[in-house]
Write a structure and sequence with these properties.
Protein name: Transposase IS4-like domain-containing protein
Distance between the termini: 18 Å
Number of domains: 1
Strand content: 15-25%
Number of helices: 11
Organism: Thermus thermophilus
Radius of gyration: 22 Å
InterPro entries: Transposase_11
Number of strands: 10
GO molecular function: DNA binding; transposase activity
Helix content: 40-55%
Length: 327
């Protein structure tokens, strides 16, 4: 269960975001971005709205639930029947488009900005360009269910040791754009680009450049060092953070420029980012969405990012009526 923080007379108070509260926000966000449910008499018509399918998948990603656990939770939260496991899998395979989830992420980021904007001062906005930890981006991390590799046996030696080839069932690569508020110690997503398994860096970098008002620092890991990306984002005003391996002095122009105005907070921020999305990668081992196609693996990575943003949003909202703190 996710625990949010409230400021009280004696400091921070903890409260739990109830499943009912989470489901209400999932339904509200899904209804705002989901397209109309197609109607037709041929084939298998959809019994439920597509907004409900999208909300249930986001609800399962939030709590990392299997279908049996989802069914047990929804019996207390919803009236009437709800989609079956086969129906959810059919919707994810046919209609869960990564573009739809990117629109949902954009809608969620605007809502987060609206909740945080009244508390931010003009001086803080002006200083955000100078403080690299206030606005930055996450390096693309590989997301995939590597443990689900299926042994591919050859006809000559079906069980010979060392002859198996592991086949990855689903894989996606995510570049998540994050904002970091040093004063609140708050990290929240405000954009993201996803590609198929082992997508090249220039494709993800081009998608990051398309996001408006992107400035600050770009934190890249060892697998994200394409010069094409650094050049494109450098022209857009993004300052890369490139680590030196083995010590020594920086000689390359990009590395020299990255050391100008260096702030030690950047390395601490890198640890926060990698910790958050390292936790996301471990959550991908669950079974709330089958990665049967490349776009379902991409959608799963975006669902994890949206679920994290929803956790941040719930931590900013006031408690529901009738809530009593236990401290």
């Amino acid at each position: 269960m996710y625990i949010s923080l409230l400021m009280g007379k004696r400091g921070f108070l903890r409260r739990e975001a109830s499943p009912k509260e989470v489901l209400e926000h999932c339904l509200r966000l899904a209804r705002e971005v989901a397209p109309p449910t197609p109607k037709g008499k041929r084939g298998r018509p959809w019994r439920y709205s597509h907004a409900l399918y999208l909300a249930l998948l986001l609800f399962r990603a939030f709590f990392h639930l299997t279908y049996r656990e989802t069914e047990a939770s929804l019996q207390d939260l919803m009236e009437g029947p709800f989609p079956s496991h086969q129906s959810l899998a059919r919707y994810a395979l046919k209609h869960l488009d990564p573009k739809l989830l990117e629109a949902l992420l954009e809608r969620l980021s605007r809502e987060l900005e609206a909740h945080l904007a009244p508390e931010s001062s003009p001086e803080g906005e002006a200083a955000s360009d100078e403080a690299p930890a206030h606005l930055a981006a996450l390096s693309p991390l590989p997301h995939g269910h590597h443990g689900a590799g299926l042994p591919e046996q050859g006809p000559a030696s079906p069980l010979s040791s060392g002859k198996e080839v592991r086949r990855v069932r689903g894989h996606a690569r995510l570049l998540a754009l994050m904002r970091w508020d040093r004063e609140r110690r708050l990290l929240w997503p405000w954009g993201g680009v996803v590609g198929e398994g082992y997508a090249p860096d220039p494709r993800l970098g081009g998608g990051a450049e398309a996001v408006s008002s992107f400035r600050g620092w770009l934190l890249g890991d060892a697998g994200f060092d394409g010069k094409e990306v650094w050049g494109v984002l450098g022209e857009a005003g993004v300052r890369p953070v490139i680590r030196l391996r083995g010590g020594g002095e920086a000689r390359e122009e990009a590395r020299v420029r990255a050391r100008e105005g260096w702030d030690p907070e950047v390395y601490r921020f890198r640890g926060v980012v990698e910790g958050v999305f390292g936790g996301m990668k471990t959550r991908l081992g669950g079974g709330y969405l089958w990665e049967r196609k490349p776009w379902t693996a991409m959608a799963r990575a975006l669902l994890e990012l949206i679920a994290y943003g929803l956790r941040v949003l719930l931590s900013l909202l006031p408690p529901p009526p009738g809530y009593k703190a236990i401290y």
